[in-house]
Amino acid sequence: MNVSVKPAPGDNRSLKNILVAEKDFEAGDIIYKEHPIVAVLDADLQGKGSHCSHCLRHIQKGMAITPESDRLDSVYCSEDCQVKDKVQSQNLLFGLEPVLPPEMDNGLNELTKRDRNQAQETFTAFLKAQNKPSHLLAARIVARQVTIETAKMSANKGGPVVAELPEGSGVGEQYGLSDHIERLRFINANVSDEEIKKLCEVLASALPGLEKSITDERHAILLGKIAYNAIGICYAGGRDDRPVSDERPEDMERTRTPHGTSRQTGCGLYLVSSYLAHSCAPSARPLFNSGTSELHLVATHPIKKGDELTMAYVDVSQHAEETPEEARRRRRVELARGWKFKCECSRCLSETPEGAESELGVEKDESKVEEVLRHTLVGEPSGPPTGLE
Ligand SMILES: [Zn+2]
Ligand SMILES: [Zn+2]
Question: Where do the SET domain residues begin and end (predicted)?
């Protein structure tokens, strides 16, 4: 992919990894292209029929494929997207077709249909009331992991499910999807008992035992990983018609995008691009030039082999009505709220701060890795099994 993941120089206690260029690039060059592990449309677009629920492509009027019944009112741009969505997570979470291959089903599907229907209805109502893309994204990731594990147990190992793993990121080769997700950094996130209970019921009703793949702690970490790593998908500068959130700024969900989350069409979790650090003077930017959730990382200025690649997680431009100090403060507050760190990029350091900034309310960097990685990578003696550090 022209890039590699390397440990960040300096503070090795944080176990931070960065993305480094493996060759030279000119401004405007595409450094790599990457498909998301999972992407979801913004809630106001889901059910509208204007965008594909799988690849997020804009669909011309009358051209959408509309499933006979779909709890989320999903529509698709193509049969290919419909099948991928169904296999990856839609059927397990929101459908009633067998979750096991025919040779293993043994009439299970007929037995479970009523309970599945009930559990899915309750969970869907919860998701719709929540209106937060991260919760659907988390459920879809869990479903994908479960589906991959289920496929491994079945005789049909090389079947369609395994083939649906993303290409080019090593997934399904050296590591499984779960290993990749385990390596991602995260910040603290809250998850309600109610949400976990409802998702567990959806899984258990489909195949007893699947609910064991979720615990309160694991799901909170997954939501924290989505909060920290999800990237906003914006087409051509983003849209202007996204409904304004009535939440407090501290509670709003944020995704990494230089256009600002308020302009996105949806968001996704990308394995390689998750390693892009933020800079207010970034060396690259994510574009969605194919009109889908496929991310093109494009160089914003000449890059040399070995240089760190960075993107802006927030809108780092200076707006017309802002002074340089106001623009600096706005982007740093956004970063502190969304990603829990005080930016120390070259631009922030060169622009003299106005007085003390203690009111940013975060430590230097509150993101972290899972305890299990800390032990593997640093060989520290294991402490209490909190999983958090
Ligand atoms: Zn599509
Ligand atoms: Zn900065």
Answer: 1-314
Let me know if residue 19 belongs to a domain: yes
360 within domain boundaries: no
Phi, psi of 368, rounded to the nearest 5 degrees: -150, 175
What's the 132 CA to ligand 1 centre distance in angstroms?
21
pLDDT for res 31: 97
Ligand nearest to the CA of 331: 2
Q: Specify whether 193 is located in the same domain as 82.
A: yes
63 to each of 56, 76, 80, 127, how far by Cα in Å? 14, 9, 14, 27
Q: Is residue 347 part of a domain?
A: no
Using the mean position of ligand 1's atoms as its centre, give its distance from the Cα of residue 144 in Å: 18
Q: How far is the CA of 272 from the centre of ligand 1 (A)?
A: 22
Instruction: Determine the Cα–Cα distance for residues 92 and 148; give it in Å rounded to an integer.
Output: 12
Residue 212 has pLDDT above 70, yes or no: yes
For ligand 1, the distance from its centroid to the CA atom of residue 65, given in whole angstroms, is 10
Q: What is the pLDDT of residues 322-373, one digit of tens each?
A: 998 899 999 999 999 999 999 989 999 888 665 556 577 787 888 999 887 7
Is 280 in the same domain as 222? no
Is 81 found in the same domain as 190?
Answer: yes
Does residue 134 sit in the same domain as residue 259? no
**Domain containing residue 277:** 3-35+232-324
Instruction: Give the pLDDT confidence of 273-299 residue by residue, as tens digits.
Output: 999 999 999 999 999 999 999 999 999
Which is nearest to 212 in space by CA: 220, 221, 225, 203? 203
Verify that 221 and 293 share a domain, yes or no: no
pLDDT of residue 321: 95
Residue 189 reports pLDDT greater than 60: yes
Contact 373, 15 (CB under 8 A): yes
Centre of ligand 2 from the C-alpha of residue 344, in Å: 5
Question: Whole-angstrom Cα distance, residue 99 to residue 151?
Answer: 10
131 and 276 housed in the same domain: no
Going from the Cα of 33 to the center of ligand 1, the distance in angstroms, rounded, reads 17
User: Which of 199, 229, 259 corresponds to the end of one domain?
Assistant: 229
